[in-house]
Amino acid sequence: MNLNKKVFIGFLFFIIIPLFVLGTAVYTVSQQLIEKKYGDLTEVTLQAISRNIYYMFKEANYFSDFWMVKDSIQGIYRTIDEVRPNEEAPSSYDLNTFDTLLRGSILTYSPIQSVVIYNNAGKSFSAGRTSGNALPWKTLSSSTAFEQIKELNGSPMWIGPSEYKELGAGRGEFYQARMVKDFWTMDNLGYMLLKFKFNELDQIFKSFNTNEDSSKRYLLVNKSGLIFYDNKQHLEGANVLQLLQGKLDLQQSNRSFQANFQNEKSLVSLYHLNINQMGVQDWSVVSITSWKYVAGEIETIMKLVAGITFVCLFFALVYNLVFVRRIVQLILRMLGSMKKVERGDLTTRMEESGKDETTALARGFNSLVERVEDLLDEVKRQQDRKNKAELMLLQAQIKPHFLFNTLESINVLAIQNQGKKVSQMVYRLGNLLRIGMENREEISLKQELDHLKSYLEIQEFRFEDQFRYEIESDPEILDYSILKLTLQPLVENALQHGFEPIDYMGVIAIKVLDEGDRIGLYVSDNGIGISNDKLAKFHYKTELETPFHEILDANVNEERRGLGVSNVADRIRIQYGLHYGIFICSLEGHGTTMKIVIPKTKEASL
Q1: What pLDDT sits at residue 524?
Q2: CB atoms within 10 A of CB 326
Q3: N or C: which end of the chain has fewer CB within 10 A?
Q4: SS3 assignment, position 378
Q5: Within 10 Å of residue 253's Cβ, how many Cβ atoms?
Q6: What are the tens digits of pLDDT across the range 535-579?
Q7: Is 53 helix (H, G, I), strand (E, B) or coil?
Q8: What are the contacts of 205-211 at 24+ separation with CB within 8 A?
Q9: Are 42 and 289 in contact (CB under 8 A)?
Q10: What are the residues facing 260 on neighbouring strands?
Q11: First-residue to last-residue Cα distance in the chain
Q12: Dihedral angle, C-alpha 493, 498, 503, 505, nearest 10 °
């Protein structure tokens, strides 16, 4: 990972992310505090609303309880009981009297809109403030609420608007249903159904809103979630559990929480009325307040702080990109330039722009590289002179060695009075000396192979009928250059040390192959080979200070054997570098193969 990425990651993890996490934590904590504080305040408000509703129903129950035990009301039940089904009413059954009695008693309580009295046989009588049909006995008795009315055994049961569809009700109209007992005998006289219109309910909820457009909404719901009262009159008849799907559970205790209500973030508070003793069956109040109203100015301040934080982060990022990045880029450019210098590109220079310390640093780097370039040029010149001297020394070592062997062969032929062969050997020797004495270190592969062929023809006179040779080469690479006298020492080594003890025809194979950007020269023989112990000592050193022949035995014969090979190996390494040289593969009793690897180069003189 480069420095630029490290600086950016450090900036991200130690500045941006901590600020973001801090801002998120502060915002979340503030939201939770606002939710808790306002939730507590809402709970107090809902407690006050619950008390008011309690007193409203308590007053209504008290009034109905008072008149239910009066002789006038109980007399109506006894009179109705005298009439059996399908029989005519007696003369005492005076409808006008009943109506006047009810209007002078129960209907004197203003919230009561109508009253229906049923006897046990299903006969009914009703009176009300407005004309309208009374609820038939069959409808009441078949209602799902009827069994609960009987179970209460005289205690009142309150039914909210639309809570039981079969009963029907308008907005704000509540039913009180109960069983009526005989005051003296506690026998069941029948049933009473009172319809209430609680205008007071609107006043209770309105008193806790500051204006008509308040963001606060109050819902009165039953245990199944049915909304039978909405202070804004929009959601009556709907189900609050569907409006707050997955968020509200009416079985839980009183609590406040955040939720989306009608696509608006809101604070929802649940409060159970706990007035079942009044005949109210598990009703609850749900308060829904817009979060904007709840948070108020604090939300605005938090958004302002968040905006300022993001602006600061933006400018910090700009600072990082403009200033810190510039310095990092300078360091990276300098690092890249240093790598180029390490690879040997001393023409590398850094751009000098500006007037600050970075410019002085770039100028100093350029000056240093120029100085290093000058020093390396001087070292290179000295090394070239040294390498040339070493090459001349190595060549001087090869030439006497070869001449000694050749003159020895000519001497043997002269003693044997083979003048024609002596003449041919002298002619070929002249060709060899002509190439060897040329004032060039490198010659073409074609010239090197011609030189080698002359050498082998000379050696055929010396080792007559003892070996034969083969030379193969790719014609396309014969114009490439090679250090002269590269192959001859290897062939000489094979003749003198590989074939002398054998009693079969020796074979020397020379192959020159194109190997991509390199040239491979193979010298193979079927001689005695090299033992594993001696072969293991051909450890290919990469340091030029370690001559190749030092890896051979100190034995005189082995020193002579390795002299030509080591000279060739050292010359190749000096001339072409450490990636080139000689590789030896041998199996004792089967022969040896030496591979020379050189680069593809062409001298201008070629």
Answers
A1: 93
A2: 13
A3: N
A4: helix
A5: 8
A6: 776 654 434 444 444 444 434 344 344 456 777 888 788 788 888
A7: helix
A8: 205/49, 205/231, 206/231, 208/45, 208/48, 208/49
A9: yes
A10: 265
A11: 49
A12: -70
Q: How far apart are CA 605 and CA 603, in angstroms?
A: 5
Residues 464 and 179: their CA atoms lie apart, in Å, by 145
Task: Give the closest residue to 117 by CA, choosing from 197, 195, 170, 196.
Answer: 195
Which pair of structure tokens corresponds to residue 504? Answer: 């079969």
- Beta-bridge mates of residue 176: 158, 194
DSSP 448-472: HHHHHHHHHHHHHHHTTTTEEEEEE
Tokens at 59, concatenated: 């007053």
Question: Look-up: residue for tokens 């029948």?
Answer: 190
CB 330 within 8 A of CB 9: no
Q: How confident is the model over 473-494, as pLDDT tens digits? A: 988 999 999 988 888 888 888 8
How far is the CA of 234 from the CAs of 35, 180, 201, 212, 264, in angstroms? 26, 37, 16, 14, 16
Kindly state the tokens that stand for 255.
């609590």
With left for phi above 0 and alpha for psi between -120 and 50, is residue 186 left, alpha or beta? left
* Residue 262: DSSP 8-state: S
Tell me the residue type at 555: N
User: Per residue in 189-233, pLDDT tens?
Assistant: 899 999 998 888 888 888 776 554 567 889 999 988 999 888 888
The answer to whether the beta carbons of residues 213 and 100 sit under 8 Å apart is no
Per-residue CA distances from 604 to 577, 594, 597 (Å): 20, 29, 21
- Look up the pTM and report it: 0.50
Q: Residue 304 is which amino acid? A: L
pLDDT for res 426: 84
- What is residue 107's DSSP assignment? G
Task: Report the C-alpha dihedral over residues 122, 128, 132, 138, rounded to 10 degrees.
Answer: -20
Structure-token match 């939300």, residue found:
299
Non-local CB neighbours of 104 within 8 Å, separated by 6+ positions: none
Gap between the Cα atoms of 378 and 401, Å rounded: 35
Model confidence at 597, in pLDDT bands (50, 70, 90)? very high
Tell me what pLDDT residue 551 has.
42
Q: How many CB atoms lie within 10 A of CB 269?
A: 25
Instruction: Give the tokens for residue 589.
Output: 């009793």
Any idea what the Cα angle at residue 535 is, between residues 529 and 540, rounded to 5°? 130
Lookup: tokens for 111: 């919230």
Strand, helix or coil for residue 445: helix
